[in-house]
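Ligand-bound model needed. magnesium ion.
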Amino acid sequence: MGLVISTVNMKGGVGKTTLTVNLATCLAKNHGKRVLVIDLDSQISATLSLMSPHEFAKVRKKGRTLSYLIDKVVKPNPRKKLTTKDMIIPSTCNITGLDLIPGDIELYDEYVVSELLHQQAISGNESDFEKVWDNFERVLVKEILEPVVTEYDLIIIDCAPSYNLLTRSGIAASNYYLLPARPEPLSLVGIQLLERRIAKLRASDRAINPMSIQLLGIVFILSGGGLLGRYYRQVMRRVKEDFSAEQLFQNSVPMDVNVAKAVDMFMPVVLTMPNSSGSRAFVKLTQEFIEKLKI
Ligand SMILES: Nc1ncnc2c1ncn2[C@@H]1O[C@H](COP(=O)(O)OP(=O)(O)OP(=O)(O)O)[C@@H](O)[C@H]1O
Ligand SMILES: [Mg+2]
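Prediction:
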């Protein structure tokens, strides 16, 4: 069985997608792991970090994106014959074992989902709408992954910054979550709020899966120099008091312009500039990731 890991933070722009794609690439390229990246964010950043907009447009035209799979769960239709396997783009960036289920700019219509679940609640035995909704959230991403979970060592889910239906469903389908963050006081508050929310998801899942949804660790994105760098180091001291060693990755990721520039080439920095400081950090972080998981 593959391990499922979500990259989450309710804050935007903290490096979730960058971490997802670089970690996935290092796992496949340097460690020979079979990795599947799933883009659950309608900003499609993970998708466009592994394939060009031109390639994505072709795939989308054929309707081969995550949106098809979500639609199939929301509105089951026997004519929809394609499965999760059919959506997978193998060996992205020419790396064997680095597969992708591309996201979509339109993933689901909140109104249609609410309407459907409301219908289910009034027509079925379950009169409690909240329960119907919670159950739907718990199974949506799980059902999508189920046919391929044995084919991979790791499935890494790139979540949107908001704590929306898909983020919750992705986390609920995960064994672990990874939390990239900047060492800023409000960011630390955000981490604690997110942990509380995930604790709720975990509680409703515990009866079925006692090993579900553990924090694998917080990965800090650091700014090396100047006053900001000094301030971040101060906050890091506070972090070490507030969080246990197991909750933190020892390796952090430095700010490096090459990481930002790689986005222009639709490839992770570990492929475009393997000798940059950002790339070297992702390589070391991946080793720590493997040690933490004992895989
Ligand atoms: N270590 C880094 N050095 C320099 N730039 C970085 C680094 N990490 C991320 N970036 C840049 O910061 C921006 C935000 O990163 P990213 O898209 O990974 O964040 P995110 O948390 O996924 O954002 P969102 O919340 O919108 O999904 C991107 O332009 C990315 O290239
Ligand atoms: Mg992102």
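Residues 12-18, 41, 43, 45, 161, 221, 253, 255-256, 259-260, 263, 278 surround adenosine-5'-triphosphate (ligand 1) (CB under 6 Å).
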